[in-house]
# Entry
Amino acid sequence: MPTAAPPATGTRTLAHPPREEIRLEGVLHALSDPMRLTVVRELAAARSAELSCSHFDLPVTKSTTTHHFRVLRESGVIRQVYRGTTKLNGLRRDDLDALFPGLLDSVLAAARRQQERLAA
Amino acid sequence: MPTAAPPATGTRTLAHPPREEIRLEGVLHALSDPMRLTVVRELAAARSAELSCSHFDLPVTKSTTTHHFRVLRESGVIRQVYRGTTKLNGLRRDDLDALFPGLLDSVLAAARRQQERLAA
# Structure
């Protein structure tokens, strides 16, 4: 018997923790890397728009970039979905704000403040 | 010529980053470990009191405990001073609040909330 054909849209799914399995420590770890923090800041600035991985021009190799996105996804900070062969990334703001009210905003504000301070 | 005698109090000093060298990424990394987050929560609950390392009953070896305190100190989250042979630890709340207003409080609130949620 032939195996089932993949869905016509060609959609593959990636593993994400459900909201109740997201842990503060994992979120803080995900945000503690400069590259990952940059990604999160850009996603936050994009509001609810989903951005492809190639949108981010990180000064690291492709495999390192993939690693960073995986850490963000597996910690529950971002959601990644395939559209064809492109991975689209969106911030899980609803989940994070529900679990840890004010946390994401305070990290984003701190990152902005630090950037301004170091540029001065 | 003889070298200068150590201070009569026997105080040794430990290296701490000055306020302007504290980085958000380092602070988030320091807070991303469950043991270190526990230490920070206890120090925050102690207000301005300084607590000795032995005050903390962490379920890890002494050398791992020492490592965690060093990460907290080197990231600028805590200040450690020797009183005789005892290391006393205090939260650098003034520095953290000045650099990243609201960040520490939002992490502490998130940790409390998560603890309550997981205990429920």
Notes: Confidence is low (pLDDT under 50) at residues 5-10 of chain B. Residues 19 and 95 of chain B are 6 Å apart (CA to CA). The radius of gyration of chain B is 16 Å. The beta strands of chain B are 51-52, 78-83, 86-91.
